[in-house]
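Good morning C.,

I know you're traveling, so I'll keep this short. The sequence:
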Amino acid sequence: MGSLAVQFTGCDLADFLPDVPVAAVLAALARSPGNELATGKFDSPESSAALAVNAFGWFLERAALLPPLPGVPMGKPLVVEIEAEMRFPWKGGRHPWLDAAVTTATSLVGVESKRYEPFRPAKATVFSEAYDSRDWGPGMARHDALRAALIAGERSFRQLDAVQLIKHAYGLRTQAQKRGLGAVLVYLHAAPSNWANGRPLDPAAIKRHEAEIAAYAKAVKGDDVVFVPLRWSDVLLQWAGIPALAAHAAAVNGRFALL
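The tokens, ready to paste straight into the viewer:
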């Protein structure tokens, strides 16, 4: 089944690490709007999607083996998803898609993975009118205030895509409330010293990214969606120390260097 799916997508089995359930991963990718496979983005040596899909896709059929992520209030994972849609409380328009989602008995944890994206040109600050028309409640007041400040030009982020994170937080909260769970948004990022082609990455941009992560975390602290920044290197270090995950951690590190 996996080989047949790969044949139809034009994807190569070499894109996936050992023991990743290819058919399940391809089914998840087919549901998402990113079209990573058809566009060739998945094959890029700088692909963040390929990193997240391989790292978390390994757990699709073995969620119990995923430990609680370092420093994340979540409990024991029950279900792991990749390319998870977090729909807003309305039908039309675009809805957020997270790289991974982990459901536990108490929490819905959304994972937004970044690798080289923070060091590319900044995204525009765009929120549709739908965000203003919705009362997100007092538990999202800090997100609302940051959104208003971004729109007014009173706050800005050069490396961090704060607009995307706020949208993800709204979608994650909506779905967590539906399920009676707490909401946690994990910003899983890297700090590569070089681009994939070996060209050095500006150290100032790396420092600025870290400072902006801290500023964003401070701005939204206390809201219903708990924001947790986390380094890929810390996650892989955790996995490497668990016998059942050590080989997978080594495979991720071997394929996706400079994390």
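Safe travels,
E.
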